[in-house]
Amino acid sequence: MKPILEIENLSHSYDSENMNLSDISFSVMSGEFVSILGPSGSGKSTLLRVIAGLERQSSGTIRINGNVVSDDEEYFEPERRNLGLVVQDKSLFPHLNVLENVMFGIKNRSDKNLIAKELITLFKVSEHESKYPNELSGGEQQRVALARSLAPDPQILLLDEPFNGLDDTLKNELYRETKNIIQAKGITVLMVSHDKKEIEVLSDKIIALDNGKIKEQNLT
Amino acid sequence: MRYLVKRINNLSFWIVFPAIVFIFFLIPVLAVLSSVVGDYSDNWNHLYNFVLFDYIKNSLFLVIGVSIITLIVGTGTAWLVSNFNFFGKRFFEWALILPLSIPPYILAYTFTGLFDSYGTLNNLVRNIFELDQSFIFFPNIRNIFGAIIVFSFTLYPYVYLVSRSAFLNQSRTVLESGRILGLSRFEASFKLAMPMIRPAIIGGLMLVIMETLSDFGAVEHFAIPTFTTGIFRTWFGMGDLTTAMQLSSFLLLFICIFLFIENRSRKNAEYVSNSTTHTPIKVEQLNKNYSMFAFIFCLLPLFIGFILPVSELIVWAIYYNPSFFNEAFLTSAINTITLALIAAILCSIISILINFSIRINRNSILRFLSSFLSLGYALPGLILAVGIVQTSTFIDSSLLEKTSFAITGSLFGLVLAYIIKSYALSNNTISSGMEKISSGIDDSARILKSTGWNLLGRIHFPLLKTSFFTSILLVTSEVVKELPATLILRPFNYDTLAVSAYIYAAEERMRDAAAPSIAIILVGLIPIIIITRMIRSNQKY
Question: How many structural domains compose chain A?
């Protein structure tokens, strides 16, 4: 099987003195659910932002589907990488309702309404489709964020502590539903979290990150 | 070379646009400053030998007088309404800002009508006490002392607003510590509170000084030789634009000094509200006598700066000028609103585009450019007009010589002047609105392939709608009041409300000036309402 995401000797720093990520290398196979586990400040979210193209690494190479999307010379902006991203604070667009949020990223498709409605149904928020984000609970907002990230049919879905701040019952319910939908759609996922239980439930492969360096990988 | 070509290819609209705006803002100022290194004519020698000293002396006298009164009135009223409960306090909290809606030149016209030898108040005194017609109770106001009164009671709200905000942000524990260490309530206020809010007060005071130095309408009406009247007379009386520009450079130097102090004070003022253990100050109830004193102290500036002139204008408009909505008034009102809206919409769009550029590029140079553009508020309208006329004349005689187009005397220069003067207002509103949009929203949108115009149109603009409309309202009210730039840059026979009021007042037709003046004040009330709402909404937290 060919890796869909390859990270080679990736380093990143915000300033000249401190290295946030140091010599990171790993790969993710198509359809895999890989998680990066690490404490706060270990560089997990930065790694995800670098892969998404929201930050540029100091050195190293990122390949998606065998194509270099970022190295010393090449740099693809986030919009050219065909990825999905869900972050902790959901970042739903407050002026758009649920349906409009989910439809936002679907481009050049006449059936975008249909695609969005299907995802909304899958994530069990169809009864809220005309509601605005401020009218939804935390769990409902997270479902909409997940639906929105999957709508443009990304190659890889990046999840940054997506279930943070939800109560345990809701988390367990969302783990199950998210995993089922992702497996059914055959999507590759790279998730970062500090919650060991969450990672164990969802992941095929775990990478442990500490202080910007990979401590262990291929844990399952 | 390859690196350079790559850099040029990477220049997007979002980098180029702020740079173009920067050039448009800079050219009029450079045009004025360029005169310093040019030839100095006989007119300059005449000014230098005979009147320049008077300009400096009068300007300094005005600045000192206005500073003392605004300091006492602005901080005094702010101290009372922030620290004490007394009869009328809730009303004064917002009403004390009202004089800000009256431009100094309108107060000057109204006071002339009120206090002239045969003005309303002297006539009233003579009629009530059945005195001889030659008896004059109120002294002549058309002198430098009258101008000090006019500026002080229209501009004190600048000091009031910053002082009040600083008083409210003070830590109660600091004042209480002073009391425990043996200071009385008043000693604690003067030895602890006042020094702590000093940078904020100086900031407000510098705004007052810059407005005083920039004014043209009031000093011209009172026939006081200052820099602005001197520039105007040199240009239009002597027909010497170069000397007028040299004089403008002199004034610009003064303004820059005060602008520098204002900027420094703003930075120093931050420590006032930095306390992490902030406890709001305790508001004390005043006894009956003190309450009466506080009421009168707050009523007086409101009465002089708003109630008295507005009442007089209303009386003139109703009793003496029945053709309130005559054709001339309607034409100038329509001209004013059209011009103000064009300038306000363009200025707000420019602010949004520049703030969006800064946000997506995270570029410190763009941030600096925006701060630089915000300094336009300090430029006197007259200097801007001088610079724009010089620039547009140059463009017409060189670049547009062979075409049938000319920008001199068109609305272009006037709208540019308005935009330069109002950018700071618009920028503050838009940038604070943009700060409220989480960066996560941008990240999500970019991942969903929304960038550039798409990101601005689908995400940022809808979220900035309120800020955008607030900016339009604020700039509109500012533009409606602007006199010197309008007077000089307007197309031939294109009257606005400010120009109509000026022309009527110059012809001593004070009562005819009532209608345009009232209209200007009504539009000027818009920012007051917005500021009051903002203050009230902040008080909820």
Answer: 2
Please tell me whether residue B81 adopts helix, strand or coil conformation. Answer: helix
**Each residue of A15-31: pLDDT tens digit?**
766 778 889 999 999 99
CA distance B462 to chain A (A): 7
Please check whether residue B4 touches A, CB under 8 A.
no
Q: Taking CA atoms, what residue in A is nearest to B439?
A: A91
Domain B11-40+321-541 superfamily per CATH? MetI-like (1.10.3720.10)
Q: Are residues A67 and A98 in the same domain?
A: no
Name the closest residue on chain B to residue A158, using Cα atoms: B447
d(CA B249, CA B236): 17
- What is the ipTM score, two decimals? 0.87
Range of the domain at A114: 92-152
Say whether both A148 and A161 belong to one domain.
no
Both structure tokens of B253:
């130097």
Please list every residue in chain B whose beta carbon sits closer than 8 Å to the beta carbon of residue A94.
441, 463
d(CA A201, CA A219): 13
Interface contact flag, A54 B463, Cβ < 8 Å = no
| B444 vs A77, A85, A95: nearest CB | A85
C-alpha torsion B52→B57→B62→B68, nearest 10 = 150
Q: How far is CA B167 from the centre of its chain?
A: 23
Å between A6 CA and nearest CA of chain B: 19
| Contact status of B458 with chain A (Cβ, < 8 Å) | yes
Q: Which of A45, A86, A91 to mutate to test the interface with B (most CBs of B within 10 A)?
A: A91
Cross-chain residue pair A77–B462, CB shorter than 8 Å:
no
In this structure, what CATH number is given to the domain that contains residue A72?
3.40.50.300
What average pLDDT does chain B have?
86
What does the alpha-carbon distance between residue B40 and residue B44 come to, in Å, rounded to a whole number?
6
Residue to substitute from B448, B463, B465, interface A, most A β-carbons within 10 A: B448
Q: Is residue A158 part of a domain?
A: yes
Mean pLDDT of chain A: 88
Gap between the Cα atoms of B491 and B174, Å rounded: 58
Q: What is the dihedral of CA B127, B128, B134, B135, to 10 degrees?
A: -160
DSSP letter assigned to residue B456: I
Instruction: Report pLDDT digits (tens) over B369-401.
Output: 888 888 888 888 888 998 999 899 888 888 877
Domain boundary among A152, A182, A201: A152
The answer on A120 and A110 residing in a single domain is: yes
Residues 6+ away with beta carbon under 8 Å from B169? B272, B273, B278
Yes or no, beta carbons of B441 and A91 under 8 Å apart = yes
B446–A77: do the CB atoms touch at under 8 Å?
A: yes
Summarize pLDDT for B114-158 with one digit per residue, the tens. Answer: 988 888 888 888 988 888 888 888 888 899 999 999 999 999 999
Beta pairing partners, B57: none
Assigned fold of B49-319: MetI-like fold (1.10.3720)
Q: Are residues A137 and A44 in the same domain?
A: no
- Give the C-alpha separation, B184 to A59, whole Å: 64
Q: Where among A123, A152, A181 does a domain terminate?
A: A152
Q: Name every chain B residue with its beta carbon within 8 A of the beta carbon of A152.
A: 448-449
The reply to whether residue A77 touches residue B451, judged by beta carbons under 8 angstroms, is: yes
Same domain for A203 and A184 = yes
Report chain A residues whose CB lies below 8 A from the CB of B454: none
pLDDT given for residue B513 in this prediction: 85
